[in-house]
Design a protein that fits this description.
Helix content is about 35%, strand content about 15%. The protein has about 160 residues and is α/β, with parallel strands linked by helices. The strands form two sheets. A four-stranded parallel beta sheet has the order 3-4-5-6. The chain is globular and about 55 Å long. The relative contact order is 0.10.
């Protein structure tokens, strides 16, 4: 999420975030404010009971017309039927999804028939740079633990 925010800022975007924890350099706002103001919404969160179907008919209804939704996280963060309806109506202009709620990548889901939708097979982690970052973070966490730090500030 922070890397996406940095890229968005480099493109001159005004970055807003809705998050459980404060992030340095990011302007945090209530979820309703983010939904009402954002032109592009990118999800970067784990799948938890409180984030399950975070994007649904209700939250889509609060969004600007023509919003773009990007989800490189977990498929179940989005109510796919609601997103499909919003894409077909034009409420949501486009969706870029690296994950869906389908049990496997061979399942056909209604989003595959929606306009302006790109679905990739949950490969955001696969570039060598991403895999190296995972190893670097794991190593830093182990070193921190060895040195007596029980909580890591790296993740």
């Amino acid at each position: 999420g922070m890397a996406t925010a940095k890229l968005a800022k480099a493109f001159g975007m005004d970055v807003l975030a809705y998050t459980r924890t404060e992030k340095k350099g990011i302007r945090c706002v209530p979820l309703d404010t983010l939904l009402e103001r954002a032109d592009v919404i990118s999800l970067h969160c784990p799948l938890l009971p409180e984030t399950n179907q975070l994007i649904c008919r209700e939250t889509i209804g609060k969004m600007k017309d023509g919003v773009i939704i990007i989800n490189p996280s977990r498929g179940s963060l989005i109510d796919e039927d609601a997103l499909c309806e919003a894409l077909k109506s034009g409420k949501v202009y486009a969706a870029g999804l690296d994950a869906t709620s389908a049990d496997n990548s061979h399942s056909h889901i209604p989003l595959m028939d929606c306009p302006n939708t790109i679905i990739t097979p949950h490969i955001a982690w696969s570039p060598s740079e991403a895999q190296l970052r995972v190893v670097d973070v794991a190593m830093a966490n182990v070193k921190a633990w060895i040195n007596g730090h029980t909580e890591s500030s790296i993740i």
